[in-house]
What does this fold into?
Amino acid sequence: MDKVTIKDIAKVADVSYATVSRALSGSSEIGEATRERILRICDEMNYIPDSVARSMVKKRTNILGVVTASINNPFMSELIEAIEITARENGYNLMVCNSAYDLELEKRQFSLLLGRRVDGIIVIPAGKETVANLSSYSTDIPVVYVSENIPDAGQFFVAIDNAAGAKLAVSYLQSLGHRKILYLGRREGSLTHRLRAEGVVAACRELGMEVVFKDNDNDGKSSMEAGCRLAKEYFRSPEGCTAIFCATDALALGAMQAADEDGVRIPEDISLMGFDNISFTALPRIGITTIEQPQLEMARAAFELITRSSEEENRQSISIEPRLVVRTSCRSV
Amino acid sequence: MDKVTIKDIAKVADVSYATVSRALSGSSEIGEATRERILRICDEMNYIPDSVARSMVKKRTNILGVVTASINNPFMSELIEAIEITARENGYNLMVCNSAYDLELEKRQFSLLLGRRVDGIIVIPAGKETVANLSSYSTDIPVVYVSENIPDAGQFFVAIDNAAGAKLAVSYLQSLGHRKILYLGRREGSLTHRLRAEGVVAACRELGMEVVFKDNDNDGKSSMEAGCRLAKEYFRSPEGCTAIFCATDALALGAMQAADEDGVRIPEDISLMGFDNISFTALPRIGITTIEQPQLEMARAAFELITRSSEEENRQSISIEPRLVVRTSCRSV
DNA sequence: TTGAAAGCGCTAACAA
DNA sequence: TTGTTAGCGCTTTCAA
It folds into this structure.
């Protein structure tokens, strides 16, 4: 039993196969009676149009490619889910490729997507070289970079306003009476992190607060392990901070572990804040106050950028407003 | 500047475009010299073969469809990542569709993938009606159901041996000296859950242990909220159990929250186990001992089933062995 | 070893 | 309103 095609339908309906195509595409150039008859026959014969063939002639696939540094990372999987929702609402499917934080693999995946003739590619970057790497491919397929390691210019990107997020956090701590805070996990490697750190410095200056730094020299990622190590280092020679603001939630989770192991109570002895609002932070026993990156908004912005890209001559970016999520890891002093 | 096609290459190389195709496909029916020359030209002209056109004639897309109940759910996102890895290793890309636990949407997504002419579909079911719903589509595309709500027969599926997992947990608790345990969250709705519950009953009988049940009548999901509610009900009228074994990690997380709120200490007052080994359970302050479903193994099994499906006449299933993951939520009594 | 040509299933002019 | 036909970019016979 072979797949039923448009020609089989045409034969049964006794029309040309162009007419079947018209019935299916909702064209107006067709009689109401024939349309209904054809549609009924399609239904009876379980006909499902071949999107490969359709893509071939229409030169669009209605597929969006996603190259992500991880599928499993909670922040990213939430973002991917948001992208899938947005794509689906607009008649697109998602082809999801994992770069596993590997720049070479990222290039391969990107190139593969190009060959698939996807209508656009959303990249959640594997590293700070990502943009340079991928923008060297000459292609007319629109590309947008989301969330991290954002380039200076020349490409589409969407990210939250990291400086504003930092300020949100610092202001909140200030309102709680904190005057001296530790900013944990500053890292030079990524622009995102630099913007956050700069935001902290600016906000502290503006609000008359003191900030001390515990940098993450490790060029690895902002992992829980790094957070734990850094926090322990601080606990060993504390400088009187009443709150720790971590560059990411993963670091905050690690700092929380360090505190537990070193007998430092949160929030009684020290307040703790993260950044990202990954789902982990909402768990019982964790309850970390943090700055949310609204993934659905980011997904919509990325989609807009991709589908409207032809309209805009000059490449541009979209900045998303972060949001404070208060839980139980901070107290007033 | 238009996309460069096989014809452009042919023109430059001054050969027929069939020859270019042969050079690219690694055919043996071509001179070594011409092949190298053509490949070099392809490289110079940044030629990327059009997989849509290729799929059109080869009648395979090298795309695997995934219909999942959630992208964001930690267990599923880990499973999807594992599927992506397996697929990539074998030259496939993934088209990921979210059913959002919605059976109607699940059907639509499935049908869409059929139209996309994917080479196989992996379904992480949205509910117990999933298999009945989807197997009504007549198609020659192989389908495999993974992980939950498994049918009785007639379809490919891969799942862990839930009864064995239950036994693993019960034996572990027994070895710790527990003699009476609470099984929290039994649910009639899903076969997976029924198998787990039956496994618990069998293991307890075998090991001479007593088990009391706290069922999840709620036909909703095995959520943290349900776990919290159920555990609180139990705490209100305890029956002397020294350990709680939850049907899923999500329930266990909820039970942990309930314990915290009711002043019940874990593991001092009562031991706690989960099932699934979602990443949450490994977090500091959580540390729930649980039964792991090895996602990579499951992904490989699903892939095998799909790609070998033509070889096997009779549909079959693969059962994966679960594994005990010991953390800090249980103590010996 | 290479070229010519048919055709994959569909859409979109152009004709009728 | 409907039919005819020319492709879309590629692979794969069949000839040369």
User: Anything to note?
Assistant: Chain B is about 45% helix and 15% strand. The first helix of chain B runs from residue 6 to 13. Residues 15-19, 22, 29-31, 34, 53, 55-59 of chain B lie near DNA strand C (CB under 10 Å from a C1'). Chain B touches chain A through 51 residues (CB under 8 Å).
